[in-house]
Structure formats: structure tokens, C-alpha cells
Write a structure and sequence with these properties.
This protein is of the alpha+beta class and about 260 residues long. It has a domain of about 180 residues: Fumarylacetoacetase-like, C-terminal domain (Fumarylacetoacetate hydrolase, domain 2), CATH 3.90.850.10. About 25% of the residues lie in helices and about 35% in strands. The protein contains 6 helices and 13 strands. Helix 1 packs across helix 2. The model has no long low-confidence stretch (mean pLDDT about 95).
Amino acid sequence: MAAALETELYASQAMGRLIPAPRACIDLDQAYEIQRRVFDKRAVAVAGWKLGATNRLAQERAGLSSPVVGRLASSDILREKTEVESPSGMLYAEAELAVVLQYDLRPRAERYDVSEVESAIGPVYAAIELCTSRYADDDVEAPALVADNAFAYRLVLGRTLGFGWNPRFRSMAVTLDCSAGRSVAGSTAAVMDNPIESVVWLANWLSDCGVGLKCGQVIATGSCTGITEAHPGETARASFGGVESASVTIIPRDETGDFDGY
């Protein structure tokens, strides 16, 4: 089952075609191994990490006790006011804080604490994460979501909000606006009550996995606004602290050319 799902997910991501949701059960350990193996087939370095299910309600709905993690390549991380091609499946937008590490947080036996992680953070960006599923039906259980790289698609970095972690990032008002008057209000506090906690959790989770975080990697800390459908022709705009800080326009998929499913 795991090998077949790995093959299907890689083909789906590379060719832009949807696959049936897995019927057989896999556990989270198997799911993360599938995710790693599919990503490794891209033959690119991990340039960043994304976190999902970073609030208690989302975890309860998914039957989880912690966030989920996905991998990002450098080609997945874009700058603001860009255009992104719509994928085959439904596309969702999330307003997030993204941070860049200024030095490594290597695997170790000792747990990382907040102060150590804060000191490792360099630029802090307003960001919009775009998520999609490679499954024809994206209403799947958590292990299937994780195997599908936690639905990672693109991360759009906007304005730099600061260099180094600042206490004001704990509870900033956030708004995500899409076309047709759709607006969602949220807060950075929606991410584990403080987004730095999601980075601490990731640092320790990766340390336990023997991987660690590397200088220059980007971390999308989790959604401040839940998930909002984004459609071709729409522009999503994220405001942090009342100031528009990131934007991305969704363009129709080119059905005639090659599709980079990533």
C-alpha cells in the first residue's frame, strides 16, 4: 500500500493529475516516510517547512495530538505580488507568519526552549500559503494528508515584518481578503497561542527525527485565518496589523503545456 501510494503521489505531483484518496489505512510514521520519499524524488534540498493543524480545534477534528509538517523546495517559495498557476485540485489560501533561520538548530538529546529558538530567527515575513491536495477527494484522514506533503503547494513571502522575533508577533490582527468581498479575520495567536511555539515544536520534532533545522530554511508557522478557497482570477491579500503585507494572484492552469505539480 505504502509503495503504491508513493508512486501515485509522485506521478500526481509531477503531472498535475488527481488520484483517488487511499482506501487502506496507513499510520503517521508511514505517512511521513512516504512524504520524505516522494520529496526525495524531486532531487532538491529542503528549503523550508510548513506546519498545519496548529490549533487545538484543527487537531481534534483530525484526530491529532500535535501539528503536521510538510516540506518545501526553493521553487515552492515565492516573493509577493506574484502569480501562481491554479493546480488540478481545489486551492486554499492561508495567511501566516513565516520565519527564516539565521543559524542551525541541530539534532540533540536536549530539548530546545523558546529563548534558543527565538535567538535563531532572522527575518520574519508576512506570508500567504497556498495549499492543495493531489487527491480527487481532499476530505481525507490525517495520515493521508501528511503523505501528500501536508497539502503543500506554494508559500508566497510578502513584507518583512521584522528581523528577529518580537513579542508583538504573538497576537497580531490578521485579515485575508479574496475577491468577491470574501474576507476572513484572524490572529497570529491562532497558531498555538503564539507562533513561536510552533517553531519550537518543529525544532524539537525534527531533532527527534535526527534531521534538525538549517540556517536559511523558511518556516511557515501555521494558519492565522483558517483555510479559504482561492479560485483562478482572484487575488488573495493578507494584512498584518492592519497593513496589507502579502498578495498573490491565481491564474488559470495551462492545460496545454507541461505542468509542474509542485
